[in-house]
Amino acid sequence: MARHVRPPSRSSATPSRASKPPTCGQTSSSDAEKSYNAGRTTSPSDDRPGYLFKNYWYSLYSFISLHMARISCRTAAMTALQHHQTPCPVHHSAETCVLTQGSSSAPVPAAWLIRAGKHGEREEFALGQGLAFGGWDGLPNLSGVSGRAAMEDVVRRMLPNNSKMSVASYVSQLWALRSEVRAGDLVVLPLKGTRLIALGVVTRGYWHRDDPEPDRRHVISVDWRRTDVPWMAANEDLRRSLSSPRTICSIKCADGTQRLHHLMTESRDPGIREHAAGPTTCSRLRLRELHAAFVTALGARVVWHSDPEVKPFELDLLSPLPSHARVYMYNATRPPGGRPAGEYKIQLIVPDQSPGERGSFDNSDDRHVFLVGYAVGEGVFVLWDAGIYREFSYSRNVQVKSNTILAAFAGEIGLQERMLRSRRGVTVREMVVAANADRLDEAIEMRLDLTLKRLLDEPD
């Protein structure tokens, strides 16, 4: 039996993380997710642009045609690692995270997409008054809300019948508006009904306005520098980031903040900067890079993590995510000729497992165990049901369909049902979950829900 090399103690770990983009609503057209969400109330989100992933075949065509264009722009995590060969130091507090580089302690400016109504109905007021806001009438003044847990209480009182994921979506957006958008950050507003982009700089963080219109009270102040930047001035990967259907989210495209600043001042997207020290392959990341991508996606919800050079990777997370997690992370690849058409795979090998030996995941210390694959070309995380995989052979293949990856790439939560036969000959139903970085926290919560449902449905 393969034995694990246990990760170092918490006191010896070097943390590393970056800002977390909020999730701003749940949208999915998959039958599996419709089944999962039956009877649930989902949170609102702005309409996706009409040209973006309207049907499966167009999505598949876009996915294939864009694949080569994304080779130099794989993920924000990879770009960050190209800048920093060692994890950046992080100053921690209970609810905030400030990424620092070198000896400087100045916060790194972020870029935020903040929409102004499903049909752009708040755009004129926002631009004229130097504001950005997401609506949300019926909420009290959020200035006194001291943390995510308190924000969740506020949302649950306002939406007592909403699902857990809907509440989490609201909390993520509102907490970003309340505490994560800071003076000096960039704000982007794609203008509805035009092919133009408004760009500005935050001059004041969250404040509560005394306004008779309840959807104009929760605001930030913005110096709108430009309202006439052509949509097509942004490169394709940046336009995809700006096409997110969410009301508020951070821009995760590589070099996004620098490129948006250049758009604001020069009306031109300079593209991704060239870096001398990058990964040697576009389809696989080193273990440290895999773990960095995971931490970057979760951002401020990561309280602590273990050495990123060691598998399994352990994390302590903020609610509503599990307090203690243990992650086994692998590259999800589709090598030419290596899989049937339309499949990605990971290969299960645990520490100290040798060919011919069987391996198992470490379930000690009351940590939730997650089996995660990362498709670096698509920036998609895949979460299998780790509890199903026990006593597995060396380098066992675990698959996920391309359609599931595609759904996550398009901004949905991808779900796939798999029927597996255990070593005892029992058929087990597994639900696989996939999400991009913006929705990884939602995917983790869904993974926990689905695993619990499987356990409850299993015969004694």
In a nutshell, what does this entry contain?
By secondary structure, the chain is an alpha+beta fold. Helices cover 25% and strands 24% of the residues.
Backbone CA Rg: 22 Å
Arithmetic mean pLDDT: 76
Helix-and-strand structural type: alpha+beta
Q: Quote the distance from N terminus to C terminus.
A: 27 Å
Describe the structure.
- This protein has helices at about 30-35, 55-65, 75-85, 125-130, 150-160, 165-180, 235-240, 255-265, 285-300, 400-410, 440-455; strands spanning about 90, 95-100, 110-115, 130-135, 185-190, 195-210, 220-230, 250, 300-305, 315, 325-330, 345-350, 360, 370-375, 380-385, 390-395, 395-400, 415-420, 425-435.
- It is α+β, with helices and mostly antiparallel strands and about 450 residues long.
- The longest helix is centred in the C-terminal third of the chain and has 18 residues, at about 440-455.
- Mean pLDDT is about 75; it is low at about 5-30, about 35-105 and about 275-280.
